[in-house]
Amino acid sequence: MSTIDALSVHDLSFQYNATEILSDISFHLQVGDYLGIVGPNGSGKSTLIKLTLGLLLPSKGVIKIFGTKTADFVDWHKIGYLPQRINSFNPHFPATVREVVALGLLSTKSNPRRITKNDEKAINNVLELTEILDIKNKLIGELSGGQQQRVLIARALINEPALLILDEPTTALDPEAREKFFSTLKDLNEHKKVTVIIITHDIGTIGKYASRLLYLDKQVVFYGGFDDFCESNDMASYFGEYSQHIICHRHD
Amino acid sequence: MAGSFIAILCATLGTFLVLRRFSLIGDGLAHVTFGGVAVGLFLNVYPIYAAVPVAMISSLGILKLVEKARVYGDAAIGIVSSLGIACGILLASVSGGFNIDLFSYLFGNILAISNAEVISSIFLSLILMSVIWYYYHELLSITFDEESARASGIKTKTINGILVLLTSLTVVLAMRVVGIMLISSLLILPPVTALQIARGFKMTIVIASVSGVLSIILGIFFSLVFDLPSGATIVILNFLLFVCSFVYGRLLVK
After folding, report:
1. With a CB-CB cutoff of 8 Å, which residues 213-252 of chain B face chain A?
2. Are B43 and B50 in contact (CB under 8 A)?
3. Domain-wise residue ranges, chain B
4. Pairwise CB contact (< 8 Å): A95 & B154
5. How many domains does chain A have?
6. Cα–chain-centroid distance for residue B235?
């Protein structure tokens, strides 16, 4: 019996002002996979995510989310997206934590999209999960960077998405919060079969949690399971001399 | 009465515009409206009938310039705005006969609005407010983070289009209250006043609306009592409310 991939990317290329940002990217993710995307700055990681979400249009190739081309995809409530926090919003925006998190519910609604009293339970649950229920009525601009990041994480999680796409989600979190965050993700991935795609520079941590790795540098340098990656001899050329120990030891 | 409805409309819409850093679109569209009024006077039709389509087309033109021509928002507003004024001046110069009429639109006079205009202003304000209510969460979402809004399936281009069209219609409505030269004050000052003290997005809109209405009522009162131009008085009061709110906001922080 054939199963639908959570994400399939076929022969994808993207150019901006005649500069090739991504070329000939192909890979696919099954439901329940946990993919870490790594690569140097400017390697096209965030661009790949934006193409996946239809925020940019590819120069060539096809992306399908749960079997549907991005352009035709309508079930956006199945996707939880966390953009890179920097520049994603005005830090002095006069919205409360509750108001921001509630925005995540809009993809489940049709016009006129209203947040009702029935939605309060979902809002409170996700605030509890991300441990920010106590700051529900604070303005987002009054929070620390780590708290703001948790608010955006809560917004991404509120619909209990089937596919979570996270662009450097732990940059503003302290080590304890980071560990807790990855543990929550692992729990969602293992018990609710949520497919996770995470861009990160934290190769040590991602080695501990992700099941697959995509090493990107404008094209696919490596794509596969962590075991294959750790058995390959190219590790040092990707991440430096001690990378094998950092990534693969923790993965064991 | 009509002024209060328009003040609430301007304050609500202005909150989205200010936070999107698109405040000056009101100013730009007001200048375009000047061209539209001139077209109406030139063609001898009711100026507002000419100003509405001109302002609407111009608002979409600003959006297209930003999207397609890789022009920054402020530059796009500047282009369309100066074009509107240039057309207005040219038409005024060619016809040479409607300077007094044009002057009344430039500086407005809420006390000279006819009963028919009052009723149509209230009616139109209610329609525009209903559209904002209908799209409230989409507007909030694109204002907070447009990229995430798109990723959650919101048609951001459509919502942006609705926002600028609403702005163009609001500008035309507000033209009779404070005049073309001062419209942007009704769109910018009440939201900025509210931002100093509000604790939540809805509260920002409520405080901005109260501030806008207060400035209109007090403005009319002072202009009647002291025989002052109503538009300018309303703007000065708006600024004073902003100063009070700023000081109160700083005291709250301390």
Report:
1. none
2. yes
3. 2-180
4. no
5. 1
6. 13
